[in-house]
Amino acid sequence: MLDRALIDGLFPADLPDPDHWEQLYPARELPEGARVTRFAPSPTGFVHIGGVYTATIAKDVAHHSGGVYFVRIEDTDQSREVEGVAAQFGRAFEYFGIASDEPTDAPWGPYLQSKRELIYLSYVRELMRQGLAYPCFCTREELAEMTKRQQATKIPTGYYGSWARWRDADPDEVAAKLAAGDDYVVRFRSPGTEGRVSFVDAIRGRLEHEANRNDVVILKSVTQSPRLPTYHLAHAVDEHLMRVNLVVRGEEWISSVPLHLQLFAALGFEPPTYAHVAPLMKQESGSRRKLSKRKDPEASVDFYVDAGYPAPAVLYYLRGLANGRLAELPLEQALTTAISLDECGVAGPLVDMVKLADISGDHIATLSGATVLDAVLDWAAQRDPELVQVITNNRALAERAIDVERVGVENPRKDLVRWSDFRPVYGFFFPELFDLVSDPADERLGGLDASLVRKLAADFADSYRYDADQPTWFGQIRELAGRHGFAPSPKAYKQDPDAYPGMLRDAANVIRVALTGSTRSPDLHAVAAALGEDEVVRRVRALVG
Ligand code: GLU
Predict the structure, then answer these.
(1) How far is the CA of 223 from the centre of ligand 1 (A)?
(2) CATH class for domain 4-16+117-277?
(3) 82 pLDDT more than 80
(4) For the chain, which residues make up each domain, given as ranges?
(5) How far is CA 160 from CA 133, 156, 188, 191, 216, in A?
(6) How many CA atoms are closer than 13 Å to the CA of 447, on its beta-carbon side?
(7) 44 CB less than 6 Å from ligand 1?
(8) Is 524 a pocket residue for ligand 1 (Cβ < 6 Å)?
(9) What is the pTM of this model?
(10) Is 271 touching ligand 1 by the criterion CB < 6 Å?
(11) Is the pLDDT of residue 222 over 90?
């Protein structure tokens, strides 16, 4: 056992004892059964949609139990930290409604692990004082060599048993190393239980896992500043002090539970309940794999925010993946109905972007034109300033445009899935964004003779009148087509195609292309109504030359 003075000399002289923190971090006064949960992302500069999924579950369970949910940024791996990620996290959390319930100055903070250095050091020192942790001076090379030898003899790799070089080292040797200023990490002295450990997971029920006998690193190299712990120690200390009683996290941590239970016991803490969430999966050529940060753009939260998928649609979809029952409910209800942990699957659910697009299109179709425009403006503020200008300058036109085939119809148009669809789908309504079709030989006009196109356009532009009655309005095109020799009916055309330049449909297509730039468009009468007489005439006249 190392000398207490020697141990204390490794830490700041005024480092408080654990008692200090125990008193500083108040118990939470919450109703019986209330769950305190957290989302604990590492700032790798990339928020995975799986993180939103896990956090949504954590927040929902906390809220439905009368508890609290907060976000803790796990930045103990400083080398990986990326500038500005906190801000990026903030935006993503806001967008998906998974921001913390607690202000940054709440009594359970700070919520950034790099700001909790002293807290961790107090507990590491305490473990060392009790002989439950010790310094290890092994170099990277020595550890690599050890692993190689273990692999060569086909025994489990790790720092345990007789391989744990510094576990029971001679205190004088340790003292000499420290006096020489050698670098070291602090390792946890695992109780080294053999066999298997069993525990109850709130999603998976009873689980069994091989016990931990590794003396894992709990405090990193002395050369670091701030001198930070590893995930394992920070996890135990933070959940305890921040009074978390339900840890909802990814299933990749299941194998660490035996170690975590040992740490909670060594520190004298009550362990939380664990709920290990299955990862989101992707179907790829007949097989399933985890949605990958490297390979799949849709793994990133930015993908959804940048394309402008409305958050309620994404959240509705994710909640349905967590609990299939919620996918059967209407959106509003699914967003407020509790997620139940025991209904979360053990196998990872498939993310189907086609399904999400359907959900999103359906959702947008239920929104009022004004709501859609406000959302488009919000989305475009950072991404498409020109669009913001155009919508703002033509707000009334924009509202008329968005209402085309959405208001007063049984099946509203579902042509917007994401806010980024607005410009390609509705852009043609706006004079500033519309390229006039001025070439009478343009191929969109279907190969009609250019001089006929010119005459047709001139005649239309000279005589055009808007009429609210669709059949009356369309009658103008019918008469126009007749005046210019188009076949009165498809049947007549088929009987003698050479007698006509085309059918009514071909004449109407000229007007359609002139007004919309496309051979396919929403109902032409409704488009003309939204554009107004003058704009209709201006667009058609462009073809006259
Ligand atoms: N920082 C860990 C991660 O991002 C957190 C895991 C946990 O929720 O405890 O994987």
Answers:
(1) 24
(2) alpha beta
(3) no
(4) 4-16+117-277, 367-429, 443-541
(5) 13, 10, 11, 10, 9
(6) 3
(7) no
(8) no
(9) 0.93
(10) no
(11) no
